[in-house]
């Protein structure tokens, strides 16, 4: 067998090479259905009860986020109980690997579809990290058996996590019980001011916690000694000889309290290479979201400070994959969005031609064309206008190329289907209506349908489905003394892609001072 044939045999197709690699055609159903509970309670953001349980997000943004006060009281309780110094765990191994899953916990088919490929890729990793929103919709302790313990029962190592905004909607009670073994109620201090009665009445209080049920679920599903772990707090660090991993808790609205900010600056100091894991990404949808710190400064200020030597920052919250290799001074920092491991998919076709980095250096999954095609099919079904709305992946890819002026990663070169073909008027109309920007020049002359221009609590009901391709993703991160390697794997839900999930993006970051910038990978 020729070397190139052997390489093709080893490397499965991905969305950049073919529609089959993207999962548009499944050879066989995924095995994840066998992992689901016998009765799966349907999860839908269209349900008023689900939105009502998530109301603390709205209240925090309108009347003030109490997360900082809650966190301070919980951290004080953890410190008084006795926890690791500087909330830091230590690993002596120079070389290690871990999985990173973001925004996992809907408990339905889209979450479970990620499990078989993640277990296959991560069977030899040392631990797993869940970055943001372990439990939807409101972080309740009662949801942990079926949305955390059961799906990840086959992962042999410990699992650490940082909370997302949804985990905070019960005052972080469920999260702290499961990951920190903390059983106190850190109810927020009362609001003050002339309108204080409104948030006091509307704020969702934590539900009752059944500690016996949680203990039974842990023993049943993740009771092996190696699976058990207790992390220092809602924010923490893992220190190793080659790399320090720093994980922060961004609360409901994305900020850090003053105490956590001081801790972040303390554990970030020094020349050792560092990786940040955060509940909110610092670069997303071609814009910066630096993350404010109470009392002044931002998280991104800490990351960009050359004295701290951060090489990458990975954030959840947005349910897709994006990567921005941003040049800061004489070095490159990899900003990654990795929230696509279970919840509904946020569109990538609304991302404009990038300005934060050169478009040729930007990566995303799903590809913009696949995102547009998936949304067009959903809107065509919901509005009962399939002939108007539905775009094939090729039609959508051509529309993306036309509107953004970029060369797509997946070209169509079969007979009669020349790459670069002009999209139809219908395809251009649907692309504009579903939010694809027109380069950086013209504005729409008519209203867009809700995709990402309205708050999540309204748009989310329009972007969830339970059939392949799911376009979910997860990361495997490998660390040696010389390098940090980040790979994004696809989880399409197709059975023929579970054992060998496609690699959608890969970047290698040198960790030694004399090394050069991160190596490039394939186009998006």
Description:
- Residues 1-23, 495-524 are annotated as: Disordered.
- Residues 513-524 have a biased composition (Low complexity).
- Residues 97-181 form the Calcineurin-like phosphoesterase domain.
- Residues 1-13 have a biased composition (Basic and acidic residues).
- It comes from Actinomadura miaoliensis.
- This protein starts with a helix and ends in a 14-residue tail after the last strand.
- Helix 14 packs across helix 16 (393-404) and helix 16 crosses helix 17 (425-433).
- It is globular and about 65 Å long.
- The protein has 18 helices and 16 strands.
- Mean pLDDT is 88; it is low at 1-9, 441-446, 454-461 and 515-524.
- It folds into two domains: 48-346 and 469-510, Purple Acid Phosphatase, chain A, domain 2; 375-462, no CATH class.
- An eight-stranded mixed beta sheet has the order 1-5-6-7-10-12-11-13, covered by helices on one side.
- With 524 residues, the protein is α/β, with parallel strands linked by helices.
What's the structural blueprint in terms of helices and strands?
Elements: H1 3-10, H2 19-22, H3 48-53, H4 56-63, H5 67-81, E1 88-90, E2 96-102, H6 109-112, H7 115-121, E3 127-131, H8 144-149, E4 159-162, H9 173-180, H10 197-202, H11 211-221, E5 236-239, E6 244-248, H12 258-268, E7 274-278, E8 283-284, E9 287-288, H13 299-304, E10 310-315, E11 321-328, E12 331-338, E13 363-365, H14 368-382, H15 386-389, H16 393-404, H17 425-433, H18 456-459, E14 472-479, E15 483-491, E16 503-510
Parallel strand pairs: 1-5, 2-3, 3-4, 6-7, 7-10, 10-12
Antiparallel strand pairs: 2-14, 5-6, 8-9, 11-12, 11-13, 14-15, 15-16
Helix pairs in contact: 14-16, 16-17
